[in-house]
Amino acid sequence: MEEAEETSSSKSEWKTISDPIQAGRLFAQDLLHNNRLLKTLRLTMDIRQDKETQDQALVSFYKRDNIQWASPLQCKLQGDIATGKGVDRHLMSTVISRIINGFHITLGGARITKIFEGEPDHLIPSISNKLLDNDMFAVAGRMIGHSFLHHGPSFPGLSPAIVHILLGGSLETAPITVQDCPDLDIRDIVTMLGGDAELNNVDSINQLCLLWNFPTLNATNRKWLSEKLILHAVIGRTQSQINQFQRGLQDTGLWSLLHHRKDVIQILFPRESETQFTSQMLLDCITWPRSTTIILGDEYEMVDDDERDIEDASRVCGYLKTFIESASPAELKGLIRFWIGWEVPEEGMRVEIVEGLLPTAVTCFEKLRLPRHHTEYSTFYQDLCACVESSSAFFFLDSDPTSGVLLTSAKKPSDQ
């Protein structure tokens, strides 16, 4: 009875709560709860295979039609005995990473296939017909919506004009800018037509106008052509892709949320700058150790806070703080992903100082375990970077004997 009352309360609360982040979480929580008895979706990736085979597995999973994407989810890395929340986070992070950086699959001749193109905060769907024919924009919509349902990473950098049209906005009010056009030659033409300087490439302008079924340049239509060409370059040529992308998002059940809570759209599609974590943002999430955890054989043991233990903990924690304070945004994201499985910081990320060779992480419980033996920052930095950079290749290599949960770790380059 209490559970039913709580669910009923959350159904209305996500519509009225002021915080859009909390509104999105409540909506996802309610949707997942309502579908908890459905058949479990199983997302599997074989880490022993090459990247192309791995990415094909991800795409095949999200290409399936008539799927209830709010069903229970179970993720598994074949070739690895790891289970639990850390694996779920790792695969959700991988999915969004592929949308941002491209899939290792060949469609249209390219070795890396990108679904969106352009500069940060002005990304638009690729005009590739191969991607459209292979339902890759529906795949992208399902991936983004599925990650949102499980509180995973968002997709940053999409053009506000594309977001506007995607969510049902009119062409007349779309906030299109010249930066939204990834073709630099077309940008130059649009910019020149929008200015007042004398034009010296009329033939190129007229060729583009004829190609896109617009009238050629004359004495009175210069500014009109500038507006029409940029509108067609950004929206006209990508309308089918936008429609397919919209269908993929709708498949995940998010449309009701986005319809009622426009302020959640910026959470689903944030600006690139809004996804950059500062050092202080990460430091504010960390719970620092009060003692040193000693690993003795196959057992973990909390030791007394004697002078040496306190000194080791203070020194190594200082090294981690130095690393965080001097890290680039990319390095911070890599550390967070190594620590908890994806690039979304969590409150209560814990640090433990241990007897061990290399840094490890219990991703399911947001624990980072750092060896106490380091006495120089340079070697600490080298070991931590080696683990962070290679954690995707050597994801789970160690076990936590106290909980049965596996740890993320990595080999040094010299050990591989």
Describe the structure.
Strands 5, 6, 7, 8, 9 and 10 form a six-stranded mixed β-sheet that branches. The chain has a two-stranded parallel ribbon with strand order 1-2. It has a two-stranded antiparallel sheet with strand order 3-4. The protein is globular, with a radius of gyration of 25 Å. The chain folds into three domains: 2-168 and 243-274, Alpha-Beta Complex (Hect, E3 ligase catalytic domain fold), CATH 3.90.1750; 177-234, no CATH class; 276-415, Hect, E3 ligase catalytic fold. The chain has helices at residues 2-16, 20-34, 51-63, 85-101, 129-133, 136-149, 160-166, 184-194, 202-211, 222-234, 239-251, 255-260, 265-268, 279-283, 307-326, 329-340, 377-390; strands at residues 41-46, 73-78, 116-117, 124-125, 286-287, 292-296, 299-302, 349-354, 360-362, 367-371, 396-399, 406-408. It has 416 residues and is of the alpha/beta class. Helix 4 (85-101) packs antiparallel against helix 6 (136-149). Mean pLDDT is 84; it is low at 1-10, 296-302 and 393-416.
Secondary structure: elements and pairs:
Elements: H1 2-16, H2 20-34, E1 41-46, H3 51-63, E2 73-78, H4 85-101, E3 116-117, E4 124-125, H5 129-133, H6 136-149, H7 160-166, H8 184-194, H9 202-211, H10 222-234, H11 239-251, H12 255-260, H13 265-268, H14 279-283, E5 286-287, E6 292-296, E7 299-302, H15 307-326, H16 329-340, E8 349-354, E9 360-362, E10 367-371, H17 377-390, E11 396-399, E12 406-408
Parallel strand pairs: 1-2, 5-8, 6-8, 8-10
Antiparallel strand pairs: 3-4, 6-7, 9-10, 11-12
Helix pairs in contact: 1-2, 4-6, 6-11, 8-10, 16-17
